[in-house]
From TrEMBL:
Transmembrane segments annotated in the record for this chain: 31-52, 58-77, 98-119
GO MF annotation terms: heme binding; metal ion binding
The protein's name: Succinate dehydrogenase hydrophobic membrane anchor subunit
Reported function: Membrane-anchoring subunit of succinate dehydrogenase (SDH).
Length: 123
């Protein structure tokens, strides 16, 4: 019977050295969303129920357009990071890599589509 310390038994079986990065990424994006979502609701609520011309004029102003763009971007980046963590925890092999690539592509495509729609609305 070998007498090993807990550290010696766990050596080489530890983290893949990316968990801390995911944690801080999720923490930063959730703090950003904590600030951005109420601002987005406030700015979007002002335009809600208005006609098309009023909405275009409203989102031509810099503050509502910037808040909407930041909310779209930070929200989808937060989604991507959370979905990637979930996929890494519950799937293995080729499926894991394909799912992560798919989620990444969908997230960046949604960011691009949202920002494109916002630019088209603002210009």
């Amino acid at each position: 019977m070998a007498y090993m310390t807990d550290r010696k038994r766990a050596e080489g079986l530890g983290s893949a050295k990316s968990g801390t990065d995911h944690f801080w990424s999720m923490t930063k994006s959730s703090i950003g969303l904590l600030i951005l979502v109420p601002l987005f609701i406030f700015t979007f609520g002002s335009a809600l129920g208005s006609g098309y011309e009023q909405v275009v004029a409203y989102y031509s102003q810099p503050f509502p357009a910037i808040v909407a763009a930041l909310t779209i971007t930070v929200g989808w980046v937060h989604f991507k990071s959370g979905a990637q963590t979930m996929i890494e925890d519950y799937s293995h092999g080729l499926t894991r890599h394909l799912l992560i690539a798919g989620v990444t592509c969908i997230s960046y495509a949604a960011i691009a589509a949202g920002l494109f729609a916002l630019v088209r609305l603002a210009i």
